[in-house]
Amino acid sequence: MNRRAGLALLLLAPAPLAAQGLDRGKAPELTDPPAFRAPSVGTATLPNGIRLYVVELREVPLVQVSVAVEGGSRLDGEVPGLASFTAGMLDEGAGSRDAVGIASEVAYLGASLFSGASWDANSVSLRAPKRTLEPALDLLADVLFRPTFPAAEVARQRDLRIAQIIQQRDQPGAVANLAFNSLVFPAGHPYHRPSSGDSSSVASFDSAMVRGFYERSYRPDRTRIIVTGDITLAEAEAALSRRLGGWRGASVPAAVARGGTAAAGPSRIYLIDKPGAAQSVIIIGNPGIERSDPDYFAIEVMNTILGGSFSSRLNTILRETKGYSYGARSGFSYRRLPGPFTASSQVRTDVTDSSLVEFFREFRRIRDEPVGADELARAKAYLALGLAADFETTGQVAGQLGELLAYDLPLDWHNTYVQRVMAVTAADVQRVAQRLIRPEQMTITVVGDVAAIREGVERLGLAPLELYTP
Q1: Is there a single domain that holds both residue 175 and residue 324?
Q2: CA 237, CA 53: separation in Å to the nearest integer?
Q3: Same domain, residue pair 237 and 275
Q4: In whole angstroms, what is the distance from residue 400 CA to residue 35 CA?
Q5: Contact by Cβ (8 Å): 33, 384
Q6: Low-confidence ranges of the chain (pLDDT < 70)
Q7: Structurally, how many domains does the chain consist of?
Q8: Which of 205, 226, 286, 347 is the most exposed place for a label (fewest CB within 10 A)?
Q9: What is the tens place of the pLDDT at every residue in 106-149?
């Protein structure tokens, strides 16, 4: 490097921090986050009633097509796991292709294809380069409404799922989740049994049962399609009308969700034995709320403070201060029917009782004490500044729009998100905490070495205790 170039670099280098007036020992002050404006959404209806939503994103020549058919695992009825199994079978044979043929075609087109089911919807998603979109949509159409459900492939996938279910019995986290849901939600409620099914229900699956569920559940009048990426509304409408506009669906009665009401009772501790376990898996919670709850923003801020972020109270005390765990969290599961509120962690066996003390101390503190101004400001900034990161890719945009449609929220809902988050007060946080965080009505599920933890947990006197076998 010659002397002139070196001098130029020196002149262009930033000034030392001290010269810039920056104090490294003082955290920067938070300013109000900027307003957010979501991408505009074009809408249309295909000839058979399918609702179409298109967001143009021209930066990258990719197109995401997300198909959602209302229903999902909450419509399993008396056969848990059937919705998710049926959804998983869609790309195991469709049209003239078998499973290998579908996978080969997806790879050849440079695309990705996924089919599955949540609690509230059956879904198929396709992402493809703009240049191969036309043949990729042909494949999507086959998978969506020309699945073959070959008997041999159904049997193979059924056996694989049974093996996975059996394997989960040795996974403490999976056991804790299954037990918690069966205890919080009563028999007859859709969430009482796992969305993946159990070994008994899955063993009954055959091609005829899967096809019957498909014909009852997959219908154009329940379907919406979100298209995001390098495409116009007119292009998307024309391309999808040619392929899906003639889909009518079978003339069968609409499925309905099962009944059952979840109500929190007095707190109770359930211990599930995992002899010799080095850790205990703790899940604490109760029935939650609907996504349409008018306190949604205050609830999100409150949970961010309690356990919804890395700097939350639960994670700070259990991970950073006490060293009991690698992490702790809390959150509300939003679904068509209210899902649970949960607070959870995996902790060392020898501090199981101490960890429960910290959980309940934080539950009571957020109810009984107003949050400080700095903590409140950080939580609101965390939510408001994180919103833009949820719209970075075509898939993320489709996911955010899909959530609005699933819960009947307006398409411009995100445009006032920042303002409504920033309007939450400390009084709002305490009010919703007192309403929803109820230490006297918690189901406490602990999977661990009962011989090592029972005495300490009983001595706490938090709630009646019983041994539980899932």
Answers
A1: no
A2: 9
A3: no
A4: 17
A5: yes
A6: 1-22, 27, 30, 250-263
A7: 2
A8: 286
A9: 999 999 999 999 999 999 999 999 999 999 999 999 999 899 99
